[in-house]
Every structure is written in C-alpha cells, then in structure tokens.
C-alpha cells in the first residue's frame, strides 16, 4: 500500500471517528442546559435572562452575591397541594391515630369530618377548624419527637392519586431551578404557609435547602428539662402564621434582606411577590406556577379550597410577573 493510500485511509478513519462521536454524544445544548425539564418558552427565557443580568460583572443590574436572595413558596410551587395540603393529610392521619384517646371526637367538628374523610365539611370549617386540628395533632411533644413523627409518616404515607411518597412528588423543573440559582450565587429560601418544623426535616434532602433557610408558620415552644435533658416543648398556641401578608413579615424577620426573586402559585403568595418585585432597581423577578395539566398533575386556579389563584393571577400582567403554564412550559412534572 502506497504512503498516499495509507494517509487517505487514516484521514477517512479520523473523519468517521468524529462523526460517530458526534452522533453518540449528547448535544451541546443538552449538556449546557441548566433547566432541561423546561420547554424553550417565555418563562425559561425570563429566568435565564434575569440570572444573566444580575450575575454579570459590569451589568447595570448586577447584584452582589450576598443580595441574591430567591424565595419559594412550597405547597403547589415546589410540590403537590391537591387534593389537599400534604401537612393537612398528615394532620388527618394523626387525628385517626389519636382518636382512641378522644372518643368525643366522633361527634365534634371538625374532628368528626376528619375521621370520616369529609373534606368538604373540613374545608368549610375554614382556618379556625384547620388550626384546631393542627394544634391538637402537632403539639404536646418535644421538637425532636415531632420531627420523628413527621419523618416516620413521610416514609410510609402515599399520595392518593399517584401512589408515591409525597417527597417524590416535587416538581423536577423547580428542583432544577433551585440548583441553577444556587450555582449562580443565590441563596434559595423556602417561605411556606405550612409549618416550619414540618418542612425542615426533609427540605435539605429533597430540595437542597438547609433547615436554617426554611421560613414557615410556627407554634409556640417552651424550654424544658426532661430527665436532665434540655428540650423544646411544643405548646398548643400559634406563634406565627407565615401566609399572605405574613410572608413579607417572616422574610424580613428571618432574612433581613429583601429578595430579588420570588416564586409562588396562589393568592397566599401575592404579598410575597409584591414585597419582592415592587421595590425598583435592581432587576426583580416574580413568577407564578399555574396548574393547567389535568393529565400529568391537576388543573385548578380560581375555584379551589387549596391553592386558590385568583387575585394574584389578575395582578400578574399588571405587576409584570411571569405565569408558568405547567402544561405548556414544563417537559416533565416529576422526576421519573
């Protein structure tokens, strides 16, 4: 074989190797896409544009890392909230567990409705009825004991529709968003209307958010020595409601900085988005998750007892908030 033929053969093999490598390798877009579960629609573009503006040195909207605070509602924003809030499902199971010690509950509302699984009557009891159940089922124990009760329940409880643990029913696109923001110097903080000590035991494992970056509703606790051991005992008294107008108050108390990005899904997040975005420079981002996917999750907004999106939906175009259409903007809902 001539030297020319050998050179030609080597060149051909090299070209074939490159072609095969290109065919087998993932695309550069797929490799570099920080939000692979998002479709290439307006919400994804808004997120990428916002992050670029606030992190690029020399940008007129550059924000130093200590000021890059992003706040997230939990129920309906990071994980499922239908057919009821997960913490309410936990409380109802606790009512059934404790019922033998309270035979009077079978005739007293809202406990009667809880025992019978009558969600319509339970919802009609309003905030007062739900708080009554929470106070009975979440107190009378130490904080450590409560954490164990929550952790044990989450390890065995299953969502009625998807038959999966609740901690698997977190939205994959939002988990990617949390990671993307942290990779760009953001501190990601959960601001939940649910109980802070209900969310903290599992938030770091599921979301990558440590306990000290979870803000939520709380009950009063009292320091006690039990068998020479210092404990915090959970009392049947409300300490703080971290919902609606309470969210900006909680953010200010716990963080001491105004966020530059806020993500919610309901009217309970309205004031949090207002507090975050209606503050002028630097760049601000407000987003609402709109549940529109009956096949992969649920479709609801104005007409629901849990996660009502009404006033905030009307406010979005006026305030310049981006509405995430779950059906149109997310390639997948949950991690496979």
Quick recap:
The chain has helices at residues 3-24, 28-32, 42-55, 86-98, 111-116, 119-124, 126-137, 143-156, 172-183, 196-207, 246-254, 270-277, 311-319, 326-329; strands at 69-72, 187-195, 214-226, 229-240, 261-264, 285-290, 322-325. The protein has 336 residues and is of the alpha/beta class.
One letter per element, helices H and strands E, the order comes to HHHEHHHHHHEHEEHEHEHEH
Shape, principal axes of CA atoms = globular
Number of strands: 7
Radius of gyration: 24 Å
Spatial order of the strands in the main sheet? 4-3-2-1-5-6-7
Query: Which CATH class?
Result: Alpha Beta
Q: Which band does the percent of strand residues land in?
A: 15-25%
Q: How does the major sheet shape up?
A: 7 strands, mixed
Helix content: 40-55%
Question: What is the overall number of helices?
Answer: 14
| Terminus-to-terminus distance | 54 Å
- Please identify which CATH superfamily we are dealing with: HAD superfamily/HAD-like
GO molecular function: hydrolase activity; metal ion binding
Protein name: Putative exported acid phosphatase
Signal peptide: 1-30
Keywords: Hydrolase, Magnesium, Metal-binding, Signal
Describe how the helices and strands are arranged:
Elements: H1 3-24, H2 28-32, H3 42-55, E1 69-72, H4 86-98, H5 111-116, H6 119-124, H7 126-137, H8 143-156, H9 172-183, E2 187-195, H10 196-207, E3 214-226, E4 229-240, H11 246-254, E5 261-264, H12 270-277, E6 285-290, H13 311-319, E7 322-325, H14 326-329
Parallel strand pairs: 1-2, 1-5, 2-3, 5-6, 6-7
Antiparallel strand pairs: 3-4
Helix pairs in contact: 4-7, 8-10
Keywords: Hydrolase, Magnesium, Metal-binding, Signal
Protein name: Putative exported acid phosphatase
GO molecular function: hydrolase activity; metal ion binding
């Amino acid at each position: 074989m001539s030297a020319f033929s050998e050179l030609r053969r080597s060149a051909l093999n090299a070209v074939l190797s490159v072609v095969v490598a290109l065919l087998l390798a993932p695309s550069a877009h797929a490799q570099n896409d920080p939000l692979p579960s998002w479709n290439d629609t307006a919400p994804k573009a808004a997120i990428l544009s916002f992050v670029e503006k606030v992190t690029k040195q020399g940008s007129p909207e550059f924000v130093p890392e200590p000021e890059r605070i992003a706040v997230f509602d939990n129920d309906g924003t990071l994980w499922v909230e239908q057919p009821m809030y997960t913490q309410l499902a936990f409380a109802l199971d606790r009512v059934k567990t404790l019922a033998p010690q309270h035979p009077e509950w079978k005739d007293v509302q809202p406990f009667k409705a809880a025992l019978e699984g009558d969600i319509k009557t339970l919802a009609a009891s309003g905030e007062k009825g739900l708080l009554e159940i929470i106070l009975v089922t979440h107190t009378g124990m130490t904080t450590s004991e409560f954490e164990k009760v929550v952790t044990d329940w989450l390890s065995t409880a299953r969502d009625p529709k998807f038959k999966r643990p609740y901690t698997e029913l977190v939205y994959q696109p939002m988990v990617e968003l949390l990671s993307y923001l942290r990779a760009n110097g953001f501190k990601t903080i959960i601001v939940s209307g649910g109980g802070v000590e209900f969310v903290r035991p599992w938030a770091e494992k599921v979301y990558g958010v440590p306990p000290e970056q979870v803000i939520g509703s709380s009950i009063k606790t009292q320091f006690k020595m039990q068998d020479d051991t210092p404990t915090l005992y959970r009392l049947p008294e409300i300490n703080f409601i971290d919902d609606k107008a309470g969210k900006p108050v909680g953010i200010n108390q716990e963080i001491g900085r105004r966020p530059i990005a806020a993500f919610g899904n309901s009217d309970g997040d309205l004031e949090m988005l207002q507090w975050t975005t209606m503050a002028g420079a630097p760049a601000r981002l407000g987003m609402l998750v709109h549940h529109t996917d009956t096949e992969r999750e649920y479709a609801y907004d104005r007409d629901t007892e849990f996660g009502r999106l009404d006033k905030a939906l009307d406010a979005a175009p006026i305030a310049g908030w981006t509405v995430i259409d779950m059906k149109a903007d997310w390639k997948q809902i949950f991690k496979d």
